[in-house]
Amino acid sequence: MSDTHAQTVAYVRDTMLPEAPPPAAERGLVKWVRENLASSWLNIVLTLLSLALVWYVLSHVLPWFWYTVWNAGSLTECREIRDAAFGEGTPSACFAVIKDRWPQLLFGFYPPEFYWRPVLALVLFFVAIAPVLFANLPRKLLWFTAASPFVLVWLFWGGTIWGPLAVAAGFGIGYAAYLGILPIAGGLGAVIGAIVVPVLYWLLLAGPIAGALAGVAPIGLTFVPSDDFGGFMLSFIIGISGIILSLPLGILLALGRQSNLFILNKTSTIFIEVIRGVPLIVWLFTASLLLNYFLPPGTNFDLMLRVIIMVTLFSSAYIAEVVRGGLAALPRGQYEAADSLGLDYWKAQRLIIMPQALKISIPGIVNTFIGLFKDTVLVVFIGLLDPIGLSNAIRATTDWNGIYWELFVFIGLLFFICCFSMSQYSQYLERKLATGHR
Amino acid sequence: MSVISDEQDSGFRLSQLIYDTRYRSLTIQVVAFMLLTLFFSWLAWNTIQNLEALGKDFNFGFLQNRAGYDINQRLIEYSSDSTHGRAAMVGILNTLLVAFLGCILATILGVFAGVLRLSNNWIVARLMTVYVEGFRNVPLLLWILVIFAVMSEGMPQPREFRGENPTASMMLGDSVAVTNRGIYVPRLGFTNSLSGKEAVAPQEGAAPVASGAIDWLLILGVLAASILAIRALRGWAGRRQEATGDRPVIWYYELGLLIVPTAAVLLFLGATLVNPYLRGFNFTEGTYLRNSLIALWLALSLYTGAFIAENVRGGILAISKGQTEAAYALGLRPGRTMSLVVLPQAMRVIIPPLISQYLNLTKNSSLAIAVGYMDARSTLGGITINQTGRELEGMLLLGAFYLVISLLISGGMNVYNQSVKLKER
């Protein structure tokens, strides 16, 4: 049979052809353009429209960024320099205002000789937060993390060192009370003791003890009142305290809302719905106008502290809803497996439920944090000097009257960097924790 | 057979309250309830003490008093002689107005941006990413201020429209004027108005017009009737298709039903566009959209639109690729696949977060304070409180207003969720 084949087919190629490059339209830039910019008529129209938009925006914005004045004392001076250098009426950014006023935008009216304190605090904060964010750092750093809240508060506000130390000692006393009561009254009694004893200590003893120690050994930094705080420092302090405090509170609220104890359940639900149903501005006004009504007559405490409390409560309600979503997304079998292992409620939550539920809710939690950080600018309405408040103050001076865009660009850029890096971190965390069940 | 030989303890020991799981939950609840009651009575007691010390009482009578301040944008009749209650109403309507407009625009922007972000056109997808990330990562307040500054600093003053060689000119055939005080657009006037009001000529040489609520109700009524008729027509076409397998072509009937009756009513009422024109130092006639309203509306829509875009994108991505492939295998074209297979399923994922974005938008509208838009917070929670000194009552009412809105919306969302929930075994 093979003979017939040899007769009918005149020629059989017995070597491979050399590989030829793909046709010109199917490779390189041309292919990319064809696939990504011009795959259909609609796409060509969209591409052209987008290019026109990009051109329109850039042709207006780029010259403004290109002709920049960095050294001037006032807007008029800025315009004179611009007229001399680039010609009259050239669109030109006057970033001199940032150069002139950046300490204010960053620190508010914090005394300039103490700028090292917030800067050091920021550095220490990053050192403290690093072992929490990245698991491959040495675990011993966590001790520093635990100590950092007291160090940071002391650096920002100053005053005697004994105040933060006396407060920190409360936690040691609580632990000691737990250990002391455990053999006498059992687990529950020890837990109650570990809560009640330090609270009593903080309410009754901590103040006098710190005062006495400060009298004996006056070690401390110059006290800076909260009224001097402002700018991005203020946003950072409010945002970060809110973030740190609202996570545990939010988790507790979510557990409360999932619980089958009627009163706890209803209380958590009402709290969450009321907080979420009303805008943050209204809560902030409540904090500044109404809080004094609800406290014993004569109490008057720091506006900034009130804001931190309000922001914390506000975002904890949102976090509770996010965590509740994570709890609801867990298969019922996980709860039943934990029960059948004989774990009690808290052990089951800590070892089985929470690690999985929190992993599911990471994107939502980080979104809440980003929202909280952005919402810190709302404090401008109750008279705190956040970056936007300061930009209004700068614009109100005769030197910089009428300057808008440069300040907006600066503030927007700083917020963008912070929020964008938070969202990038959350994506990193999601990738790292993905265990690939799909 | 194992015999349960649990020793029955006849007596009840106090420690059972803590260590017996039958009673423990009850104990915890009773303790929690007592603590809560204590806490709230403490708050109430403090409040009573403080109010007494200030010589104030707690009543809502101030709502009946004369307000004495002006509100620059009002949807209902209001003057400074009206009551504080009326002022609060004006503010609430203003909040609802900007929230309603914002929800519409934000949905349009969000759906477009979300779909385009998934487009295989490189530059369009990148542009949409820039839009979404830019708006999501910068505070809304900053955007409101930026847009307000663009409006009030970047736009021409009314006097620049004046003179022989004006530096600014009106747009769209002298009908729209964009000034630094706001935007003036034409309004609809009726030469045969049914309202019985006296017709006034808006401008010398123009036909006298009037307008009243009844005219608008008539137009809206006819429009609603047309839409109902269109739905009925579609239902008939659907039944027809079920019966015969042939779908009748009805789109031109639909178009006709939509346009013809409304156009007839407009013709009957003698509707004419009343253009704004320059008189004295400012524009007059037409509808005046204030800077504050526009800045707030645009900023809220753009900001919320970025979030909605992410929800839409997530919803589309959540539909497994197998669904699209199955639709292609059945021979559906890409457009029909999107509208008949992917979108109906994606809607179930998109709608709940979409509604909570509407809720966020409504609450964020309280940022109106930044641009001086007179919303509920500025009237009821701002000037009224300052004038009457009734912080407690005012904030309580304001909070209740927002709470009612959000409970209504989330209640609606729960009903919707129930109706589209996957019916599982």
Q: What would you call the shape of chain B?
A: globular
> Quick one: how many beta strands of chain B?
7
Which range does the strand content of chain B fall in? 5-15%
Strand order of the largest sheet of chain A: 1-2
Question: Strand-and-helix sequence of chain B, N→C?
Answer: HHHHHEEEHHEEEEHHHHH
Shape of chain A: globular
Number of strands of chain A: 2
In the predicted model, the low-confidence regions of chain A spanning at least 5 consecutive residues are none
Which two chains have the most extensive interface, and how many residues on each?
Answer: A-B, 54 and 54 residues
In short:
Chain A is built from 16 helices and 2 strands. Chain A is an all-alpha fold and 438 residues long.
Q: What tags apply to this protein structure?
A:
heterodimer, A: 438 residues, mainly alpha, two-stranded antiparallel sheet, 16 helices, 73% helix, B: 425 residues, 3-stranded antiparallel beta sheet, two-stranded antiparallel ribbon, 12 helices, globular
Fold and architecture overview:
The complex is a heterodimer of chains A (438) and B (425). In chain A, 73% of the residues lie in helices and 1% in strands. With 438 residues, chain A is mainly α. In chain A, helix 5 crosses helix 9 and helix 6 (116-133) runs antiparallel to helix 7 (141-157). The longest helix of chain A has 55 residues, at 162-216. Chain A starts with a helix and ends in a 5-residue tail after the last helix. The mean pLDDT of chain A is 85. In chain B, strand 5 (277-279) and strand 6 (282-284) form a beta hairpin. Chain B has 425 residues and is mainly alpha-helical. Chains A and B meet through helix 3, helix 10, helix 11, helix 14 and helix 16 of A and helix 2, helix 4, helix 5, helix 11 and helix 12 of B.
